[in-house]
Predict the 3D structure of the following.
Amino acid sequence: MQVLFVHQNFPGQYPHLARALLDRGDQVAAIGGPTARPLPGVTLHRYDPRPAAGIPACHPWVADLQTKSLRAEAVGTLLQGLLDQGLQPDVVIGHPGWGELLAVKDLLPTVPVLHQVEFVYQLSGGDTDFDPEFAQADWVSQTRLRLRRAPQLLALHDLDWGVAPTPWQASTVPAEYRHRVSVIHEGIDTTAIAPRQGSHIALEKAGLRFEPGDPLVTFVARSLEPYRGVHTFLRALPQLQALRPDAHVIVVGDEGVSYGPPPAAGGSWKQVLLRELEGRLDLSRLHFVGRVPHPVLHDLFRVSACHVYLTYPFVLSWSLLEAMSCGATVVASATPPVQDVIRHGENGLLVDFFDGDALATTVAGVLTDPATHRPLGTAARQSVIDRFDLHSVCLPQLLQLVDRVAAGA
């Protein structure tokens, strides 16, 4: 079977699925943007979304749609050339979020397409009106959001089948399309991402070394922004430091934004919040380390006495499941889709996203009585093995789904 992946940042969600398809003998090709990375055995074709004549001016409300249209045109042009050269995919697998799939059905009308459905923007009850501190409730913002949904709804209209990683993320799909969405996570390699004896973390510039049993709190996000609760977390630290003067905190993530807007006055959210909290934090016990390599991140989870994960109702981070797979004791926000994964008091602890006092006292309680809370980490790992293990659960289901979609089932 010939499988074509379309993803601007290939392999994106698909490294394990692509390798599994290759391992069983399928031919695999991919179309990706300038940042796409090759995988051995996968023929990668890159497109450039920038038109030769430059990006034309447009109404600011449709700037997002224009960006997606430029990608659709670039992918369509590249795909047309590949079809002329003999490419004949039996199934296309891609992420509709960037507009790359908009032209695929016009070029391959009879070829089934499997969509990665991460999240459909909600006009209410989702991420955009969740946080009253930053929510924009005026009609202009609402109309811009309505237009931003347009490519997603077009993709759903052409949907052969979709796959979403969690039940709540699947539930963001409008009801009339939801029956064509399977819930299967991309998978966590629980053999490699697991507790390991001898793990440690060294902060060489600070002259610090942390091992299991140390009162270390961790917080991880791709970007330190309100969508991932950095404001709630940092504002809780003065109280946490008062309750546990011996605790150290390591924060992983860069200072940009991945999902939400930057601060209106400029700078980064980290800078804004540190100015707000100036004089209230012991900065010698707060360590911002930027982004770190994946193996270091896993060692951090193995050493952490308490890992904090906060999010708006939005896409679930892989980092949460990886922390759980490493056996970390997790304190997380009682928000979807976290509640699809963590059951309070069974495999983690949940707190109100906005309640910094509850967050501080809960984390301090974990640090003060680690023996009582350690079974939560053990149960967290087991729940990831049972529901999200790459090789025994997710990959077999994904491969079966690809075959069924390719067969038109």
About this structure: The mean pLDDT is 95.
